[in-house]
Amino acid sequence: MRSIRTGIALSVCMLSLSATLPLAAQETQANPISTTLKNELKSSERNLVAAAEAMPADKYGFKPTAAQMSFGQLMLHVAGSNEFMCATIAGTKAPQQAKLAPTASKDSIVARIKQSFDYCTTTLAPVDDSKMGDMVPFFGGRKISRGGAMVSLVGDWSDHYGASAIYLRLNGILPPTARGAKPEM
Known about the structure:
With 185 residues, the chain is mainly alpha-helical.
C-alpha cells in the first residue's frame, strides 16, 4: 500500500512539475509581434540587398516573361513597398524620394534598396504592440489593422525575395540563402 501511495505521490509530483516546467522555462516577450517584425526586417534586408548585389548590372532589365517586372523594377518595387508599409505601420508619412527608373544604374538601385531598409529600421524602432488593432491606410484605398500591415509586410519581403531568387537562378546565379548549401542533384 505504501509503495502505491509513493508511486501516486511521485506521479502527481512529476505531473505538476512537468506542467510548470514549460512555464518556468518560457520567457515572455513584451512585444512579440513588433519584435518579430524587426527581426524579420534584418533578415529580409540581408537577403534582398544580397540578391540585388548578386545580379549583374547587365541583367537588371531581365524579365522571366514579358508580363513580369524586370529585376530592376522588382528591386524598386521592394524599396517603394518598404517606404509605404513602414510609414503606414509607424503612423508617419512616407519619405518623398526622387523617382528612379528601372533602367538606372545597378549602384543607384542597390543604394535605394539599402536606403529603404534603413528607413524601415529607423521608422519601426519605436513601434510596439500597443496599437495592433488600429486601422491604417493600405493599398487600394482600403484600411487594414496595423497588425495586419505588419503581417503583410513580412509576407511581401518573403514574396519579393522568392521572386528575386528565381530571377537569379534563371540567370545561373545562386541566391544568397542557397550559398553554402549542398549542391543540387
